Prior knowledge:
Blueprint: H1 8-17, E1 18-28, E2 43-54, E3 61-64, E4 69-75, E5 78-80, H2 82-85, E6 90-93, E7 99-109, E8 116-121, E9 128-133, E10 155-160, E11 166-169, E12 173-176, E13 179-182, E14 195-198, E15 201-210, E16 216-225, H3 235-253, E17 262-267, E18 274-275, E19 280-284, H4 295-311, E20 319-320, H5 327-344, H6 350-366, H7 381-386, H8 391-407, H9 409-423, E21 427-428, H10 430-441, H11 445-452, E22 460-467, E23 473-481, E24 492-502, E25 505-516, E26 520-522, E27 534-539, E28 546-547, H12 551-560, H13 567-582, H14 588-598, H15 605-622, H16 628-645, H17 651-663, H18 667-678, H19 690-702, H20 708-717, H21 721-733, H22 737-749, H23 755-765, H24 771-774, H25 777-791, H26 794-803, H27 812-824, H28 830-862
Parallel strand pairs: 1-10, 16-17, 17-19, 20-21, 22-28
Antiparallel strand pairs: 1-2, 2-7, 3-6, 4-5, 4-7, 8-9, 9-14, 10-13, 11-14, 12-13, 15-16, 18-19, 22-23, 23-26, 24-25, 24-27
Helix pairs in contact: 3-4, 3-5, 4-5, 5-8, 6-8, 6-13, 8-9, 9-10, 13-15, 14-15, 15-17, 16-17, 18-19, 19-21, 20-21, 21-23, 22-23, 23-26, 25-26, 27-28
Amino acid sequence: MPGENLSRDEARERAALLSVDGYDVSLDVRSAVGDRSGDGPRTFRSITTIRFRCNEPGASSFADLIAPSVTSVSLNGRDLDPGEVFDGARILLEDLAAENELVVDALCAYSRTGEGMHRFVDPEDGEVYLYTQYEPADARRVFVTFEQPDLKAPFRFEVRAPEEWTVWSNGAGERFDGVWRFAETKPISTYITCVVAGPYHYVTDTYTRDLGDGTTLEIPLGAMCRKGLAPYFEADDVFLITRQGLDFFHDHFDYPYPFGKYDQAFVPEYNLGAMENPGLVTFREEYIFRGKVTQASYEARANVILHEMAHMWFGDLVTMVWWDDLWLKESFADFMGTFAGVGATRFSDAWITFANRRKAWAYRADQLPSTHPITADIRDLQDAKLNFDGITYAKGASVLKQLVAYVGQDAFLEGARRYFKRHAYGNTGLADLLSVLGETSGRDMGAWARSWLQTAGVNSLTPQVLLDAAGRVAELAVLQEAPESHPELRPHRVAVGLYRREDGRLVRYARAEADVDGPRTIVADLAGQEAPELVLVNDDDLTYCKTRFDETSLDALRSSLGDISDPLARALCWSALWNMTRDALLPARDFIGLVLRFAGRESDIGVLQMLHAWAESALVHYVAPPLRETGARLLAEGAERELYAAGPGSEHQLAWARFFAGTAESPAGFELLQGLLDGTTTIEGLEVDQELRWVFLEPLAAHGYADEKALEAELARDDTASGRRHQVRCLAARPSAAVKAQAWAQVVESDGLSNALVEATIAGFGQPSQRELLAPYRDKYFAAIERVWSERSIQIAMTIVKGLFPSLQDSPQTLVETDVWLAAHDSAPPALRRLVLEAWDDHARGLRGQACDARAEAGTAAD
């Protein structure tokens, strides 16, 4: 639609012209319930008043609104013709005065895509639930805005809702004469305003803190979810992490939480993990656990709670000027989520999860052809939507961890404190943060930023060990490499650890920190040490790099990986080996062999679950096709063996049960799954709850052991929103050409499914065991994606373009057809081309891995 994709240049021009004094927004969402007539979208009334100034009276600008219709527009008391000034995405504002008032009465559409005002009907009880989600620019789907982060303003909301509902917004609210009115907010950006409405289950608590100046800070706490999830809602644990986080950030930031109350809403069909709306944080409701989960899931929830809380300062109090500096909020929040988790909660090993899981996301993103500096070049809103990626989040957080090692924790935190106080309720860019960090550290932050924030790509660090005649270390050097496409060699603060076998364990007996700079750096402090069996060049995970090994170290890992005593060091070695597999330096079958040999000894449950995911990915994408059948059999046998060996009722047993379901490939394996479902087979301590039942049903459906009738029967046991998502996924997984055609039509040819059901259908559609069945959809994919991009919302279009790429058609022909599409669509939207190019690169990487695996097999056969 014309004007919908706001550019950076347009935003700069508007910010130079306008400043906003305040918004009054009145919404009437009573239409969310009950029947409706007409063929158009279900709508609600939205009346917005914006008070703003223009520093060039007589000039023209525009306001943003995406809505089916506008009833009236008034500018400074002049009634404007909506048909002349509204084009479906923008309202033209001409002949502006020095001080202006814009009033717009519109009908806005409820969403089924998770963008704007999302409307959800709970199949369990028929109740309707609403919530808003805006980042980066969907507030304009709910009320008229100046939709860019640097035009901050105070907001006053009022909402008319069904009598039996409760409504929440950023500020505290009360109901008067049937209308919910909310306290005016501090100056905030449009994308972090929020409304949640419906018959939510709501629990309250209070946080208090002595500020040390004779005053006490009191923050009302609230947590909510759908009524159907109330029996599973662990509000006490949510509040525990919340209080611990607020204590931690108050201790370290020296700036009291600035937004009054602190509500947290767990909402259905949410596209994101969570969103940092001040005073009303929204989360995906999957963080409410309907069945038994491992501690890794609780740690993940705590991390997200703390991540969003950090945003109250990094992002909400101080906000980036434009999406180029998205890292100023997301990188910091990602870092702080783990930093606070380790420092304030029971999850004291969270840096292991960060090293193993978050950085894996960053390493993948940083090796794609679309990689970009942490401070990115964001031309428009479509660019911004795609840059909520592993670089902005996890690489940025990794670089901040390196920065803490570089300048020291005290200087880093003092810089944050000055940053908040200097720029409260304002907008900043890179230079503003570097300025305070330079002040507090005395370091040249410009040079650091140029190397780490303004260049792309990941370096590789490899140890080089020279021994003297006595068998001691004569010289230990660290070799640094960079890819040709991004040749920057960066300064790295690293810890190098030397490991040897003691009492059957691989233990660190020497460690030295060093500043690695350039292609070769000597670590002088390790000279004279006994010869190591293993050298870990990024011990303690201080920097962001791909760790490599010398041959001696690699041999030690092949024989003794499970013997490494330190869990973080062990996790770092696993991560390095996975990167080698992805880079076609380690045959995928060797990686799977290491998982089969050592994963059963892994103590950290998060690392174990990551190993399971990597092993499945290795089998699907990196194992040479002739070896897949053998690899699948070995993984399934290993998973079953570990399932029976795990402690009864342990979280490791649960993880192995889930992994076994994902790897089952034989009639005996499917018989075991079916027996666990119907109770004819039991494994001591394993509770097959409803969530685990669906985990077992998907592979049974995908291999023809569970038909539509069985899935209908399971839905009757679990006729809930979660159950319907699971059933939709399992239905699409069935091995039938008619099933695949129906799933494709529902996702690509129709917009009848909600965002959550689109995701579920795509997840079921692409089964690795059904490559031949999916082959016809390669051509259909390339024929459809440009139309999908133009007709669907960007969120749904992204889900389809990424989720349906024919990655299971693992032949060079898929790359050829992708190249043909890219060449024929050089004028397609850059964001669409980026997604296709990323999928091409992932596919090419998989083919290189398969070739590496095939060469290794050929070499073994020759031997």
